[in-house]
């Protein structure tokens, strides 16, 4: 049984076609490693306690990030998440070389999102102040 945390699992990347000639980044946990973990569960308000073996999913997921584009402040936060576009194979290989674990990749996405959201929040606050409801 593996004692590895999810963030320490190896990651794989690929670029898939998206809207004509564009490609977007997809990632998954690499299936070439031990993916088992134990999950503790309770039933009947804790009277029955047990653990079961599980495996992390190796499905492909499209990578999204928060994007503060020119008119992003006009939209709610959840409408500003966009796929990560990959323009060249070289760019894809840079992701493969730079991010070896899913934790490293998520950390980069979190920093990217935080920076973009901070800029968006200032613009959004100013926009909402100028466009208040009328009573």
What distance lies between the first and last C-alpha atoms, to the nearest angstrom? 63 Å
Please tell me the total number of domains.
Answer: 1
Beta-strand content estimate: 25-35%
Radius of gyration: 20 Å
Regions with little confidence, pLDDT below 50 for 5+ residues: none
Helicity, in percent? Answer: 25-40%
Describe the fold and architecture.
It is a single chain. The longest helix has 29 residues, at about 100-130. The chain has one domain. It is flat, with a radius of gyration of 20 Å. The protein is α+β, with helices and mostly antiparallel strands. Strands 1, 2, 5 and 8 form a 4-stranded antiparallel beta sheet that branches. A two-stranded antiparallel sheet has the order 3-4. Helix content is about 30%, strand content about 30%.
Topology record:
Elements: E1 11-18, E2 22-29, E3 36-43, E4 48-55, E5 61-62, E6 64-66, E7 81-83, E8 85-86, H1 89-98, H2 102-130
Keywords for this entry:
135 residues, 8 strands
Give a quick precis of the structure:
The protein has 135 residues and is of the alpha+beta class.
